[in-house]
Specification:
Protein name: Zn(2)-C6 fungal-type domain-containing protein
Mean pLDDT: 80
Order of helices and strands: HHHHHHHHHHHHHHHHHHHHHH
Radius of gyration: 28 Å
Subcellular location: Nucleus
GO molecular function: DNA binding; DNA-binding transcription factor activity, RNA polymerase II-specific; zinc ion binding
Distance between the termini: 80 Å
InterPro entries: TF_fung, XnlR_reg_dom, Zn2-C6_fun-type_DNA-bd_sf, Zn2Cys6_DnaBD
Low-confidence stretches: 1-22, 86-120
Pfam family, one: Fungal_trans
Strand content: under 5%
Number of strands: 0
Largest sheet: none
């Protein structure tokens, strides 16, 4: 028997007798009691646990308190606290905090305030087994050619996750809303596959699928007043669930896809450094699964069974590259990836073919295809990411023999990025799909701003100080003015396409960097010239960011940064 195979249940002892004999347990197992399901009580494992290949516990320990117990205890605590504080209950109080955690203590209060109530958690870490074969990392060749399979994660779905997900109808509503909003700008999932998985009950589909559904619910959720995004109940449960799955040695595509959504949530709601770390986690996890295109990487997923599965893996890796690059925009701390797409690497197929599941007859471009070749929104976003990668390499990786060579390379990059920035809005207008193309459009604007900003700074801080620097600086400043004006027009399109608040759910957090870059440029122009035209442009962008801040808090953070800069400048001028 291989050391990586699990021993069969009811194994034979040294004297030839079975250690466990078939029979009936006196009570239901712990898992069935938690889920309030009928238990077969068969030994050594009930029918459900046997089918799920998980540990079956017939101990007499009392089951953890249910959600009804939590709610009843919370209600009693709030009533008691209300009596102690001499006032009625506030109907606007968050269900996740007691009045003592949301109001200040006064001199009329009787004694110190009652601490906030936190529902007790069960101990899901007990009994977790990590069966991941270490040979996959210690000797990948023997793992690859030895036919060793990574076991599926064996873990019960935590009670809090089940409560947050709700019943099958609620999960289906979450999926439908996800595909109507987030999927427009990050189409990495196969809707047909998820629909097929919904045929089975959630507890028979696997914990990684439950995690994916939970993260879908997380990414479509809006910020809640009075609750930090990092304390959102769904976010806290998702991060805790991810840690549990990691402890089991889970290695599945669903887990990577779920973490991509977590990274987008953290980026969109400005949760740092978590967003930066989660994006890096996705890169390493994608490499571990073997979907990065590295021919020497260990392939933990095995060969794809269908064209749809192969395309989904490719789109997932592109999703990893996109989120990893975008979370590094403002910090300029992007770690250059040795696995950058090559010119002959394929781009995702056209989105219409992907949605229809007709991959075999789909037209597919490659990374090196000319910009003039027509593609749809997601391949365009991938091209925009590639263009930004070239700018990052130009700034932080490439070496040039002379200033003239560097200036020539920067000019060529500017021309290529400008051509892409003109092409994408044209396709969006032709397809009448502003939301689908908005991410790619904005990312090209961010790329142009990033390229020009380095060369537009005063001589004392500029990258180049030789004879070419003055001409480069002039052209870079003109480039910033041009792209900033284009971004103002982009803001007008955002306002025109979001007349209702619910339309903001279709907006991608990717666009915020471009808006902030233009606003920062106009703020600098206002300080330099005091031109009213620049001030009006700045006000228009700032107003749009405030509007978007109700959906994505990184927009609100950008507004706060702009206001802080404006205040600092005003104080400095007065001094």
């Amino acid at each position: 028997m291989s050391m990586y195979e699990s021993p069969p249940d009811g194994h034979v002892s040294g004297n030839g007798m079975h250690e466990l004999e078939l029979g009936k347990a006196p009570q239901a197992c712990m898992s069935c009691r938690k889920q309030k399901r009928k238990c077969s009580k068969t030994l050594p494992a009930c029918a459900l646990c046997e089918r799920m290949n998980r540990h079956c516990d017939y101990s007499n320990a009392a089951p953890p308190p249910s959600s009804e117990d939590f709610n009843a205890l919370r209600q009693k605590l709030m009533e008691l606290e209300s009596r102690l504080n001499g006032g009625g209950m506030n109907p606007q109080i968050s269900p996740y905090a007691t009045p003592s955690s949301t109001t200040m203590a006064t001199s009329d209060n009787l004694g110190p305030p009652v601490p906030a109530f936190t529902p007790p958690q069960d101990a899901p870490w007990q009994g977790i087994q990590n069966r991941f074969p270490a040979i996959a990392f210690l000797d990948s060749d023997n793992f690859k050619y030895g036919g060793i399979v990574v076991p599926k994660p064996s873990l019960e779905i935590p009670v809090d996750v089940l409560e947050l997900l709700g019943d099958a109808a609620t999960i289906q509503a979450t999926i439908s809303e996800y595909f109507a909003t987030i999927h427009n700008w990050m189409p990495i999932f196969s809707q047909k596959r998820l629909t097929r998985n919904m045929v089975n009950p959630l507890w028979e589909a696997g914990p990684d699928l439950a995690l994916l559904f939970l993260c879908m619910k997380l990414i479509i959720s809006r910020p809640q007043d009075g609750i930090e995004s990092s304390q959102h109940p769904i976010y806290v449960s998702a991060k805790r669930f991810i840690a549990l799955l990691e402890a089991t040695g889970a290695a599945t595509l669903l887990m990577l896809q779920a973490n991509i959504l977590v990274a987008w949530y953290e980026y969109g709601q400005a949760i740092y450094p978590a967003a930066y770390m989660t994006a890096g986690w996705c890169v390493r996890y994608g490499n571990m699964l073997g979907i990065s295109g590295n021919k020497h990487a260990t392939d933990l997923l095995g060969r794809p069974g269908t064209w749809t599965e192969q395309e989904e893996r490719m789109r997932t890796w592109w999703g990893v590259l996109i989120v990893n690059r975008i979370v590094s925009l403002g910090s300029q701390s992007y770690v250059l990836n040795s696995q950058e797409p090559k010119s002959d690497d394929p781009l995702p197929v056209n989105d219409s073919a992907w949605e229809a599941g007709e991959m075999t007859a789909a037209r597919r471009a490659v990374v090196g295809s000319p910009i003039s070749e027509p593609v749809t929104s997601f391949p365009r976003l991938c091209q925009a990411v590639i263009m930004m990668g070239k700018v990052f390499s130009h700034h932080y990786g490439d070496e040039f023999a002379s200033e003239a060579d560097q200036y020539k390379a920067a000019s060529e990059l500017y021309s290529a990025a400008s051509a892409l920035a003109r092409k994408i809005p044209e396709e969006a207008d032709a397809e009448q799909d502003f939301f689908g193309y908005a991410s790619a459009t904005a990312l090209t604007y961010s790329t142009l701003c990033s390229l020009c900003e380095v060369y537009s700074c005063p001589k004392g801080n500029c990258k180049l100080t030789g004879k070419e620097s003055s001409e480069m600086q002039i052209q870079a400043i003109e480039g910033l003015k041009t792209v900033s004006g284009t971004i103002v027009n982009f803001v007008d399109h955002i306002n025109a396409n979001t007349p209702l608040s619910q339309e903001l759910d279709r907006i991608s957090p990717i666009i915020m960097d471009a808006l902030y870059s233009a606003a920062a440029n106009y703020a600098w122009m206002v300080r330099e010239s005091g031109d009213e035209v620049y001030q009006n442009a700045l006000d228009a962008i700032r107003l749009c960011l405030r509007k978007l801040g109700t959906r994505w808090r990184n927009a609100a953070e950008y507004v706060r940064i702009l206001e802080a800069q404006e205040f600092s400048y005003a104080v400095g001028s007065a001094s």
